[in-house]
Amino acid sequence: MFGCLVAGRLVQAAPQQVAEDKFVFDLPDYENINHVVVFMLGTIPFPEGMGGSVYFCYPDQNGMAVWQLLGFVTNEKPSAIFKISGLKSGKGSQHPFGAMNLPQTPTVAQIGISVELLENLAQQTPVANAAVSSVDSFTEFTQKMLDNFYNFASSFAVTQAQMTPNPSEAFIPANVVLKWYENFQRRLTQNPLFWKT
To answer: Which of 19, 51, 108, 194 has the maximum number of C-beta atoms within 10 A of its C-beta?
Structure first.
């Protein structure tokens, strides 16, 4: 029903079922993980009116499990990316895995998925630091990248009088780069994801 993905690692598609409505994935060497993707496999949907709360669990310095709510997956939102790198020093929260004796080792964390009513999911508040990267941060990055490229390319600008003929080099007029820069900015403002089409 669920899958878990960490960049640079194999996809995990077989969680350990620890209760009828609770599943966990082990995350070895979790100290080196920044983001985790949790997704539905598409084989079995949630029952009507149900969804899955996604938790991150790591052992504290005493080896006790610290659970933090990351967010949710539902039939309408079958996947999510969560940032876990900043959570390893935070406080735990209430969670549905409390009564279970899940093994904890110092270098293994877990992702837990609890199947719950959608109305219960809507009342829960994920930890703030697990927020997924937004389009706004992507747009900001793209803007800075465009500015940097234009400034870099412009730093090599020379007048026609300063040019020396060199048959092995191609020259691009600065106004062409400026036109591309302005068009890209305009399209990014209209639709930040235009480049995906």
So the answer is: 51
Co-location of 98 and 140 in the same domain: no
Residue with tokens 């504290």: 60
What's the structural domain count of the chain?
2
* Parent domain of 98: 2-123
Torsion of CA 93, 97, 98, 102, to 10 degrees: -120
Burial 162-194 (b: 16+ CB within 10 A, else e): eeeeeeeeeeeeeeeeeeebeebeeebeeeeee
pTM to 2 decimals?
0.61
What's the Cα-to-Cα distance from 190 to each of 147, 150, 154, 194, rounded to whole Å?
A: 18, 20, 26, 8
CA 165 from centroid of its chain's CA atoms: 49
Q: Kindly report, residue by residue over 89-101, the tens digit of the pLDDT.
A: 555 555 666 545 4
Asked if the structure places residue 31 within a domain, the reply is yes
Block residue for tokens 């920044």: 34
* Model confidence pLDDT, tens digit, residues 110-130: 999 999 999 988 888 887 666
Given a contact cutoff of 8 angstroms between Cβ atoms, the answer to whether 91 and 65 are in contact is no
